[in-house]
Amino acid sequence: LLLGVLGAPALGDPGPLEDVVIDRYYIPKICLREAQMGDFIRYHYNGTFKDGKKFDSSYDRGATVAGVVGVGRLITGMDRGLQGMCVNERRHLIVPPHLGYGSIGVAGLIPPDATLYFDVIMLDIWNKNDKLQITTLSKPERCNRTVENSDFVRYHYNGTLLDGTPFDSSYSKGSTYDTYVGTGWLIKGMDQGLLGMCAGEKRSIIIPPFLAYGEKGYGTVIPPQASLVFSVLLVDFHNPKDGVFLEHLEVPESCKRRAVTGDFVRYHYNGTLMDGTLFDSSYSRNETYNTYIGKGYIIPGMDQGLQGVCVGEQRRVVIPPHLAYGENGAGDKIPGSAVLIFDVHVIDFHNPADPVEIETVFRPEGCNVTTRHRDFVRYHYNCSLLDGTRLFSSHDYEKPQEVTLGANKVIEGLNSGLLDMCAGERRVLIVPPHLGHGESGARGVPGSAVLRFEVELISMEEGVPEGYLFIWHGDPPANLYEQMDLNKDGGIPADEFSTFIKTQVAEGKGRLMPSSDPEKVIADMFQNQDRNQDGRITPDELKLKSDEDQEKIHEEL
Length: 557
Known about the structure:
Low-confidence stretches: 1-13, 553-557
Number of domains: 5
Distance between the termini: 126 Å
Subcellular location: Endoplasmic reticulum
Helix content: 10-25%
Domain PPIase FKBP-type: 38-126, 150-238, 262-350, 374-461
Largest sheet: 6 strands, antiparallel
Mean pLDDT: 91
Function: PPIases accelerate the folding of proteins during protein synthesis.
Number of strands: 28
EC number: 5.2.1.8
Keywords: Calcium, Endoplasmic reticulum, Glycoprotein, Isomerase, Metal-binding, Repeat, Rotamase, Signal
Structural class: alpha+beta
């Protein structure tokens, strides 16, 4: 630009100006672009005479001035004075008459041969050859997918004019802007500017007017021919055709079985939005989420996402909104049309039809005698959850566990797993909850938990039929009472009864119900026979168990 003035003599009036006098009294620190010949510009100005009298002002009209610079559409002095300006730059311009309205002036407004003074601020610069300007401000390290046409996006934005004047913000509304891309629902520049973005990416998008609101502007907030600047944060996006996306984070080397429809699964999860915002976590409640899969008890995306999981597997399940909570969202933590990400850790699963799973780890050679219903067994065990969490162990006590099989003293699954074992045999038992502690669990055992037992049979004793405390190996003595009444006084006290029973066992004529406390078994037998509880058994009181059972049958008949 020519900024010179006529050289001044040593004294007196310097004389008329040859060119525009430009005073750049404010220059922004950052100037990305300067107005050049042929550019479209928007600016505000005040126009005065030398004495300060105002003759024109865009401010008074409430509208900026827009036009093309350097092509003769403005007075020559203004054309020259505006070139080279930056957005937000302020200039004082002194325009001599021959570069203004000359010797004619403007009737009623500007007298002939008037020098004009303009105070100008540049607000916008663009060119018809401009393209969208996209600057990536930040981008996630992981970006598996980017926005394409027809995707539905949710994003936050701050919108300003090129001079920084804000005109809109999604943040002030407290919600994202949600729309389809590439379908004409957005201005062309935003349609283009969102393409290729990752969820979590931040961009600055500068849109020239012809890709924004053009000559008409928008309401009172966006003037005609305004360039727009959007600072955009892409929160999430999806396509209506999307299905569930699975990412297998950790799969156990051994996976004997995978979950299918109808299985009951216990799993931990963290649920986040695509921007990482946590909306729910089973870990925070310190309990697994337990449900059937494939039966509509959970959102469709999770029903699909849990199909085929292994026990112990960790997987990421990405669910589009049409397979989650849709346009309405859920509560105050899941917005409408939100993509959900679940990081899932499968603890265990089972099917209500599952039996006990038995794996024989070791079986001694020459195993001819195995455990049966009502046998008394001694065994060691370790009990854990399928994820390895240790629950109980008989090794924590001095003695092995003792139980009569079929006496309802242990869970059904363990009882079944101890049948048909040899002494010395070792097994691994997988017990589903309906054969374990059920939906309610037990002390230290979560509800609906599948249990893993490592069992070793230490010893076993042949049992007696249910309801019996003692059985004869042959026929009982015909004169049983006389033989039991050792001192022949017509009554059998507890010590005589105990001595007689022990003798029968020692001679192999009969056997007691196996127990760790045979004295208690004999005491229970005596109490059963001493029907009037006077401490002595009389001939009328003594009855065999088989005779008692027969009497009951007759009574029922």
